[in-house]
Structure formats: C-alpha cells, structure tokens
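Annual report, structural modelling task.

Input specification for the magnesium ion complex:
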Amino acid sequence: ARSLSKVLQLTLAVIKPDAVAHPLMLEALHQRILDNNFVIVRYKDLVWRRQDSERFYAEHSGRFFYQRLVEFMSSGPMRAYILAREDAIRHWRELMGPTKVFRARFTSPASIRAQYGLTDTRNTTHGSDSAESAQREILFFFPDFCTEEWMEKEEPSFR
Ligand code: RTP
Ligand code: MG
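The model returned the following structure:
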C-alpha cells in the first residue's frame, strides 16, 4: 500500500561567509536547497563573534587549520538553516560534497563545494555530521527552537 508517512530528519546547514559575500551565490544556494526537496524549517542571517566561532569548532582546537577556520567563520555574515527531509543529514552532506575542494572537484564535480568552494577552509557550506551534532548545532544557532517536538521522548517512568 502507498503511504504518505516518512520519517523527517532535521539537520543544520550553514552557508559560510565566502558564499554569502556573493549575493548571487547566496540566492543560488537557497534555490539549490529547495530544488533538492528539503523543507526550510527556519533560516536566519547572522555574524559570529570570534568566541562563537571558537566555541562551535572547539573539537578542532589544536588542528593546524583551527586559527584560520575560526577567523574565517567570524569574518562576515553567514546564513544558517534548519532543514528537514528524510535522511536530511546524509542528503545535505552529499549535496555539499567532500570537505576538501580539490577532492570534491575530482570525486563529485556537481557538488556545491566542487562548484563554489575556494579553499579547504573557505568551502562554502557546513552540514551536521550526525544526529547528535545536528541537535547540538541546531540549538547553537537557534537556541529558541523547540527540538523537543522532534525528538523521541523517553518513556516516562512511574513508580
Ligand atoms: P563541516 O564540519 O564544515 O561540515 O565539514 P567537514 O565535517 O567536512 O570538515 P571538518 O573536518 O569537520 O572541518 C571543519 C571545517 O574546517 C575547515 N577546514 N579547513 N585543511 C584545511 O584548511 C581545513 N580542513 C578543514 C573547513 O571549513 C571544514 O568545513
Ligand atoms: Mg565536521
């Protein structure tokens, strides 16, 4: 039997400062999201302070690219989205392509990073890499977003 029921998953997607700096690219990427069957649940434009950048990427502190990453991500406006789709996390990462732009150009030439990425750091977009990071990152960007409704609740325990 045909069924309309699908499990929607949420992911956090970011259009990074290198892409937002170009108005046509921002529009193109926004349209690309819609063309790929994502539902835009929320989006907003924002600018990070350096400390936001450091906090968001704390897991990378100590990596050789950390300083330039932190600086880049607080260098100008970006746009954050909460996207919904079945398998949203995987689909968005697939659409972005590999982190490294030159690898992306070889392995996934139609991907966003292959087409628009400038360098391995200035690579146009971000996407959560797991359900756990999606939850953390959605709340990082949208602290008022009520993820409760979207999350499986633990069975209440009675005694
Ligand atoms: P993301 O977290 O942004 O979705 O990308 P990812 O998982 O594919 O990449 P990750 O290894 O988590 O790195 C986070 C971001 O750091 C910058 N980066 N620069 N060699 C470099 O210069 C370098 N390597 C990573 C990128 O902006 C990457 O998206
Ligand atoms: Mg990552």
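Helices lie at 17-20, 23-35, 50-56, 66-73, 88-96, 101-107, 112-116, 131-141.
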